[in-house]
């Protein structure tokens, strides 16, 4: 199956000389949730703006469901819904009117049934006659999503969709995004909340200084790059790592009261068993053993640091 979004050799150089995107190649699969991660200034918003036809590329091509975003802008843009990071909408209009107006901008005929379904899915139906200015920040963000879905796009871009909303609303929006995927909508999101990507994404892309440095299945990425840590709590503190363990990836923590062994994901548990055997042989008593695994946030920080 052909990708619904295809980016090839994309570059963007601004008049100031800033090279915001550097030879970006990226395919987004139909029906997936793709999370684009990167530090501030990495090029996330520029990439989204270019795919959505809001930023003109310096070179390269972008297609949306086969339509070039430059030469066939209207057809390409009709395939895409965009939820911007900024809370900008008509404050003096009602929810119903502003969402219906957004549909009309794409030349779509009126469809009250579709607008009602969107508002109900986003828990906005009881607010349909409320003016935007009277809504909370979280509700305004839901209105932006409703506007983006008003013309029935196949692809939805969410730029920091849960920035500034409380934890409960964030969870509600995660559930809503999952329902949209079940309906066949392709979701691309940027986020500073790494747990958001870990919770929802099928694939993860990392962008740094305008370059895509990694695209990987989330589960594969976690298995390949996620490190396990074994913490051994000692009965008596140690001043230094025992001589026969100096070559191991072991650190002393908590003022000598704990040894922390970083487990290479390529190895099995034999290393852990050998470590414990050596501690016993060295007459080092321990009172507890605890294992943990790197989160996606740990992996992301390591990736960006390694490429710095």
Automatic annotation (TrEMBL):
SUPFAM superfamilies: P-loop containing nucleoside triphosphate hydrolases. The keyword Zinc does not apply. SMART domains: AAA (SM00382). One of its GO terms (molecular function) is ATP binding. Keywords: ATP-binding, Nucleotide-binding, Transport. The keyword Cell inner membrane does not apply. Belongs to the ABC transporter superfamily. This is ATP-binding cassette domain-containing protein. It comes from Flaviflagellibacter deserti.
């Amino acid at each position: 199956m052909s990708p619904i979004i295809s980016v090839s050799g994309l570059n963007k150089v601004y008049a100031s000389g800033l090279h915001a995107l550097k030879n970006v190649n990226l395919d987004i699969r139909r029906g997936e949730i793709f999370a684009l991660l990167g530090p501030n200034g990495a090029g996330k918003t520029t990439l989204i703006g270019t795919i959505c036809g809001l930023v003109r590329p310096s070179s390269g091509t972008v297609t949306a469901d086969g339509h070039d975003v430059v030469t066939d802008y209207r057809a390409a843009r009709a395939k895409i819904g965009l939820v911007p990071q900024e809370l900008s909408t008509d404050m003096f209009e009602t929810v119903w009117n502003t969402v219906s107006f957004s549909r009309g901008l794409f030349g779509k005929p009126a469809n009250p049934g579709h607008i009602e379904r969107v508002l109900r899915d986003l828990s906005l139906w009881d607010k349909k006659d409320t003016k935007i200015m009277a809504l909370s920040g979280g509700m305004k963000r839901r209105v932006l999503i409703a506007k983006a879905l008003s013309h029935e796009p196949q692809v939805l871009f969410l730029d920091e969709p849960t920035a500034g909303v409380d934890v409960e609303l964030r969870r509600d929006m995660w559930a809503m995004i999952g329902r949209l995927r079940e309906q066949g909508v392709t979701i691309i999101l940027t986020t500073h909340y790494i747990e958001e990507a870990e919770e929802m994404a099928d694939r993860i892309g990392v962008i740094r200084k305008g370059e895509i440095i990694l695209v990987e299945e989330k589960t594969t990425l976690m298995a390949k790059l996620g490190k396990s840590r074994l913490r051994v709590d000692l009965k008596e503190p140690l001043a230094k790592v025992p001589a026969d363990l100096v070559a191991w990836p072991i650190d002393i923590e908590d003022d000598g009261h704990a040894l922390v062994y970083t487990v290479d994901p390529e190895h099995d548990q034999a290393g852990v068993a050998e470590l414990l055997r050596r501690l016993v042989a060295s007459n080092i008593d321990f009172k507890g053993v605890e294992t943990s695994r790197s989160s996606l946030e740990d992996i992301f920080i390591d990736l960006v640091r390694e490429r710095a």
